[in-house]
Amino acid sequence: PRRGWVERKFTYRIPQKEKQLQVKLAFAQGNVMPGQEQTVSLTVMDDSGKPVHSEVSLSVVDTAVLALQPEFRPQLMDFFYPQAKLNLTSFFSSQFQSYGYGEPLASLFKPNYWYSAAKSEQEKLREDDTAHWVANLVTDDKGAAASTFRMPANQTIWEVTAIAVDKNGRFGESKDEFKSQMPVSLILAMPAFLRRGDSMEPRISITNTKDSGQTYEVKYSLETPSELQVENPLAASDKLAPGKSVDLVGKASLAQLPATGKSLSLTSQMEFAQNKLKFEHNLRTMDSRIPTNESPPEIDSGWKLSQSEQAPIQSVRYVVTQGIMGTLMPSMRWLIAYPHGCVE
Question: Distance of CA 332 to CAs 42, 322, 337, 340, 342, Å?
Fold first, then answer.
């Protein structure tokens, strides 16, 4: 060993116990079926074990989402009793993309802007990453409170976070998990959207996912709105041995567009092992009008717009360009609309 000395620093905290609250979580079911109701009960006590009248925020979030995007806020203990840490976040961090920091940084890439920027979705995808959220759950004189909610269709592990605070400024936080899984899987396949007059063949697959064990008697039906004209309804009643499945194909057509909104709601109802489950499915609808483009020949040859009784023309936009301008103008519009206005 060489001569000399080495200095090291060690940080630790001494929180005040009288400023902390203890939050205990309990679930009505440790494994709840998707589509069923779940009840989360909690009890808030002080450091001496006495019940506390407090206000609690409760969230139930999919752990898969939290693994990709951790909570932005720090833990309460870290917030009130912070320790020195290195707050380093790179551009490739998921937190940067999730909270909007990636877009300004991506603009620094200049010509390669679109390669690094997050791409926007024209249609917002519906993701049930949050099963339940309540911000003002109030405990009673015994320090107890409960919240009941219906589970979405996700088969995953849910993380429950409860944060309590009282009028004296005391705080507490607790986390726990429960499962939402079922031995029978349900997969419904149908088009992303329908136009008026279109027909579809929705397909359903119900499978007993267990390799061995119980045989389930399954009943299934799909409820459709009045706008859909059903020719072959989706309904089944069968016994599923372990590893077996039943596949169904239906047929329906969109007779008319919905009076309000742009989507239809379909409901799947399934019963097995004394469980009654309901799942909602959204089907987007679109107008029957389809834009088309036709270009006439360069010489006058009596060109006419084609139409039929089945597809009458509702509106026409006529654009005239000639010579080199006809080739140059579309390119100029694209260059001017380029993110950085580059005209090369």
Answer: 64, 15, 8, 14, 10
